[in-house]
Amino acid sequence: MLKNLLSPTRIGTLELRNRIAVAPMGVEIAEADGKVREPVIAYYEERARGGAGLIITENTSACYPRGANSAHELGVSSDDFLPGLKALTERVHAHGAPIAIQLAHHGKVGRLDTQQNRPLLMPSTPRKGLRIDGPLDLSLEEMGLMAAAAGKGRPTVHEATVEDLQALVQDFAAAAERAQRAGFDAVEIHGAHGYIFSEFLSPAWNFREDEYGGALENRARLLCEVIAGCKAATGGDFPVWCRIDAVEFGEEDGIRPADAQLTAELAVEAGADAIHVSAYAHPLGAGFTLAPIVHAESGFAELAAGIKARVSVPVIAVGRISPEAADTLIERGAADLVAFGRPTLADPAMPIKLAEGRQASIRPCVYCYTCVAQAFFDRSVRCAVNPVTANEAELSSRLREKTSTPKRVLIAGGGPAGLEAARVAATRGHRVTLYEKASQLGGTLRFAALVYEPNERLLDWLQHEVRELGVEIVLGRTLGTADVAEQAPDVVMVATGARREKPPIEGIDLPHVLDGDSLRALMTGETSTGPAPDLGIFDRVIIGAGRLLGILRSPGRLRTLSHRYMPIGKRVVIVGGDLVGAELAEFLAERGRSVTLVEEGELFAAQMAHPRRWRVLHDLREAGVELINRACVDRITRHGVELTLSPEGEKPESREISAESVIVTLGLEPDLDLSTRLKSDAVRVVSIGDCTGVGYIEGAIHEGFKAALALDDPES
Ligand SMILES: Cc1cc2nc3c(=O)[nH]c(=O)nc-3n(C[C@H](O)[C@H](O)[C@H](O)COP(=O)(O)O)c2cc1C
Questions:
Q1: What digits encode the pLDDT tens for the residues 469-493?
Q2: Pocket residue to mutate for ligand 1, from 28, 57, 59, 293, most atoms within 8 A of Cβ
Q3: Ligand 1: residue whose CA is nearest its atom 5
Q4: Band of the pLDDT at 540, cuts 50, 70, 90?
Q5: Structural fold of domain 9-395
Q6: Cα 408 to ligand 1 centre (Å)
Q7: Is the whole model's pTM more than 0.90, yes or no?
Q8: Which residues, in sequence order, are CB contacts of 525 under 8 Å at separation 6+?
Q9: I want to staple 281 with a disulfide (CB 3.0 to 4.6 A). Which of 10, 249, 273, 551 is the partner?
């Protein structure tokens, strides 16, 4: 399996044990001086231990602090950075992984330049500013954080002179030579993502009339000079390559695939030993999810294939590529290596697990964009499904070691918080029994898996892990005081989820109104989680048959089936535009329903990381879903929903929206009922997940993880 992806290869003189590269990711774990210290080393060491064939570092500033995006970006602009960088390469090499340094200058995105009152270095004065078409879809808090990250300075531009460009080439060459001395195995020049070299390459940003502007040969000159400079400074055999944009989406006169193919050829002529193919789009709004942090699976694969057809050196493909798709790409000669970004934040051991045929053990990325959202706020990376990411120095060894004080742990609730707590506790060597009142594990994650496919992989993984680790699972039963008395656990964890309080809306009890519980019961046939809704005879027969055949137990099959049949009317109003409401709206719109999403507040899907929100809201609008914010539901009638709208600065107005089905996602409340009932002097009870306040998947996983690690704390 995956023999192409797992086969060894080489880039120039560099031998690689497999064709899996850890993509460059600005994780911003460093302190505000750009120096490598233990947390940074531990982050990369974890990825090296995970078996990658090649690690490419985050963008590292060749001219730090000049041209850096953040003070937390790594620097390699003087020998002061050497000790940390040396320690990094040594620790990575100890696990058999070569490491390339990605050298960058951020040009127009050099946030640190603005913060420190330096002008942004650019090919030309831009003819337009960064704009966002349509609504911003950001919260006030997010806008505040972005403004704070940008700093107090006002961005100004300095059009690079030829002397500036010569100095830049020198800086990169010196940085490459320094990286070589620090023990790096290769250099990747960041020629993509709207940073300085990409700006020179793009006719949308480069209006120069000298030898660095105009024809592509001129626009590529700077990149080629830098490649040649780095090659010369490192002695010729040392591998140097570049990452480029195969396309610049959303810019009429931006980079086109044919330009990128020619750039790749010119780069190879200048000495590049490989070409890494990414892409770029306007970074504010849904464009950000077109590129570089692509939403579409294998979104740039054909672009990589186009470049591969034109060059003789290895091509590295990237962009939401699954290992299976990566294997096929390599097999059909469309790429030589594949870089994995987000998947290696979710599971740095992905390569080793693939090599060992343990696919089911790979913690999947759910493509929620939590990781990359942090960069907008100048914060360290964070992974929704892997709490260890960016905390390796403190946490990864704890997960590898068994506890010296094994405990007996009972967990009530098999949703994401309970499952993660069970997984981590069992990994540490605690004895765990998990009780779930429904007939299947998953809790709210099961429903989330139905509407958003990557969540199903997370659910499968959690179930697989707890079973592999020998967690005892009791289904169809609520943990009671008698169980606690009988089993005498050291700790009880309650992870039973939130309670649903029907909001006091007139008409909420009408038969065509569904809340989260009844919707779940309707879609999954699971009645232990909520009241079965009123259904016609046809619906009952279909659901009964589905349950009998086991179809309703699989979110994937249910997702497929629901394209053909769903006992939900053609016109649907969803009351509650939170994360759940927005995902549900997308699910229903994809199944031909005409959907209106009604939100009381200003912002839809406020709980989503903003890049994912940008994508989802963009797709909803494209699909014709009507999004109504600042709307209060006055009553639900047999024919629809009556609202009062309060548009900003205008008089409130009434509106009626007709609907055959109304879904109310509101009313989730913390529920400490079971915790209170189980609490006694004899046992410690810890509440985690949504029963303490709704935190969605990220909150549940992080709380479950933390609670399980805390089992070793003295008070547990
Ligand atoms: C948190 C984060 C930080 C990133 N930082 C960089 C970077 O420093 N340099 C770079 O070239 N690409 C960066 N990228 C883009 C990735 O290298 C990669 O191209 C992108 O995530 C698509 O690959 P994936 O779908 O496997 O995540 C970053 C991506 C993420 C998620």
A1: 999 999 999 999 999 999 999 999 9
A2: 293
A3: 25
A4: low
A5: TIM Barrel (3.20.20)
A6: 41
A7: yes
A8: 543, 546, 547, 552
A9: 249
